[in-house]
Amino acid sequence: SSLHEAVPIPTLDLEALKVPPLVGERLRSFLTTDLGEIAEAITQSSARLLDVRGASGVGKSRLLDEVRGRLRSRGFRTLHYDAMALRDGVVRNLLSDLTSLSVTKGRLMLGARELPHVLRGRGCDPEFADALAQFLTRSIDLSAAFFALTETVKHFLQQPVHVGPLVVLIDNIQELSPTTLDLLVEGAEFLRTNAAMTLLVLATNTEVIDHSMVRAVAEFHERLDAFDRRFRLRYDVQALRTPDARVLLYHLLHGLPEAAAREAGVAAEEPVLDLLISKAGNRPLELVVTVDWM
User: Fold this and answer.
1) Which residue from 26, 66, 111, 187 has the least number of CB within 10 angstroms?
2) pLDDT grade for 16, boundaries at 50, 70 and 90
3) What is the DSSP string of 197-247?
4) CA 179, CA 181: separation in Å to the nearest integer?
5) Is residue 57 pLDDT above 70, yes or no?
């Protein structure tokens, strides 16, 4: 009893743990100003690249979910892939979605014989239809049909089967092979120089990169850095400042004295929040995991 009076035990908001709020003035400015300007440019057929980077647990994937949700509410078609799970299968899934092919349990509903005809009917260059069909049916790999696949990705990023603004989000690009990274840069370069209603969002975990991929990812980022600022916006997701970490914990926890103090407009010390931050760190994922553990 006396312990509870000294340090009240908070209750958990389990729903808030599933989708933690995004906090921080810089992040709010990006979502309300920068993202709105990007969306407006794309609806005017001016393609854009959003280059998101950050260490593990700082909120990159959560940010991509927010970008996807906000653009979807503005009428964008959204295609979202996680390279951590798909690896180079990202390209196969992307092409299947851009050409609007039916997929069930990861397999195409169309056979290898009829697929080239369907692809040509949906706008694929006849010269590349057979190679694309073989790639989609896993008869050949990406490197064997790199040129055909790259040209096809370019075409459908500019002219997808479903007409309208499009956003393609790829998370954890550090998991992709150098060949796939080359394809993405080629696609981005094409978007930079051609009118298209497409936003390409590429997110990199800068902390978890396989030793064999460090050089390839570094070269990939150098090529992205070479794009002019009108086309490419780089957003570095960083660990929370202590005040922002406190705000996040305030949203995740209930029953703290600080809640009543904030409502009354009175500043309050909250040792529970400061203790959690000191134990967990300032990355959102660490804070969420700590609260979940409680």
Assistant:
1) 111
2) confident
3) SEEEEEEEESS---GGGHHHHHHHHHHHHTS-TTTEEEEE--PPPHHHHHH
4) 5
5) yes
